[in-house]
Amino acid sequence: MRMPLSPQAILDAFQATPSEEAWAFRKCTPSDTGKWTHDYHRYPAKFIPQLVERLLDEYITTPTAHINDPFMGCGTTIVTAIARGFYASGTDINRIAHLIARVKATPIEPNYLAQRIDHLFRLVKEYNPRTARIEPRVPERHIERIRYWFNESTIHDLGILLNLIHREEDARVRDFFLVAFSHILKRCSLWLQASTKPTRDVHKQPVAPFDAFRQHIKKMQDGNAAFYDVVPARVREAIDDYLNVRVGDARAQPVPSASVDLIVTSSPYVTSYAYADLHQLSTLWLDLTDDWREYRKEFIGAASTAYRPRALKSVLAQNIVAQLASRSPKMARDVETFFADMQEVFDESFRILKSGGRCCYVIGNTQLKGVDILNAQVFAESLQHSGFRLDRIIKREIPSKILPQKRDKKTGRFAKNQTADAEAYPVEYIVIGLKE
Ligand SMILES: C[S@@+](CC[C@H](N)C(=O)[O-])C[C@H]1O[C@@H](n2cnc3c(N)ncnc32)[C@H](O)[C@@H]1O
Fold first, then answer.
1. In 10 A of CB 21, how many CB atoms?
2. Does the domain made of 7-98+234-277+287-434 have the CATH classification 1.10.3520.10?
3. Phi, psi angles (nearest 5°) of residue 173
4. Tens digits of residue pLDDT in 133-147
5. Domains in the chain: boundaries
6. Nearest ligand 1 atom, CA 265
7. Which of 29, 209, 235, 248 has CB 3.0 to 4.6 Å from 157, enough for a Cys bridge?
């Protein structure tokens, strides 16, 4: 077994790592990255399937592999694993992410789906507001927030649509419809369309829910058919045996120890996206939480994350927190919490991997208050503290067309492209740990 690298040796190793052209996926088009079910729902900071595919190509040699993603987001890793006929497990604390990931990874027989869609569209077409006795299904306890984001007539139409969706008895099909419903909410709302942040645009002309829904369902239907074709029949027929995804914390994977072959994941970034807030339209309409304050505290890397003092094992992390402390004590605490939380996530990755298995963490560095937040280097050091050998560092450029967004140098938050004064992630890293 090789000795762990010292913090300085880790910094040097990153310095010496050139970016690898093959990992930039420069030629990928939106239809490549959005193939199959990958375009069912927008999701901030999702990674491209080609990156996962390549990692599977390089590291998986068995046809019965088990792939895990503790921060599965909208399920890019999970979908890719299922497409290859592997077992897929994972968690996300974001309830809407879990719904999206599960639906995207569940192929539905296309003819049957077409029938169910026709049935729903017929109900929508027959709906006549003057004669119908259908109550709009609007979650009463969130009505004030819903009124902030939606016009009254849109609320009515969305409520009717939701009611009709809930008449679908097949839970898989109903969830498929709910993902389409969730996806159209932004366009139907007053949420500033170009912004991922919750910003209201009172001059916006929201689109009509029934039209937007019909359009998006058609797109999803095509995606499902293409996905159905690639998923091996044995997996399609027993999807519940292959797919094990839960709402839950990254530090508690729903799998036994030493059962996973490969982890491919991208963690949240410290104080970047407030995932709970960003998905509030869906969380409100689908009534996924009754306590926003508590819900927000569960997210790693958010300014709202619960704080409890823990000693940081990573020396690089300690140095970063110390540098930040004099400039912003609040930010220093957020960063400390983030690194302490991630150390626990790495411990869990170590527990679930088989010996010889690897974890691949996709992560970029950033700046806060002028301090370099070397997430990737800290991850590399922390992986060693959890028992991993630092196996490989891949540095990849993110071609501008798929660059998520730019970050503001002072706050580290994502900003509009025109206004940001720093590149978001011109490069990012895949930090790979090996469980020997
Ligand atoms: C960078 S995104 C992952 C995107 C994903 N790779 C994809 O392709 O969609 C990070 C995810 O971590 C999730 N997350 C934040 N805190 C978490 C926690 N405590 N446990 C599990 N997931 C968490 C967020 O909800 C978000 O979906």
1. 10
2. no
3. -70, -40
4. 889 999 999 999 999
5. 7-98+234-277+287-434, 110-227
6. 6
7. 209
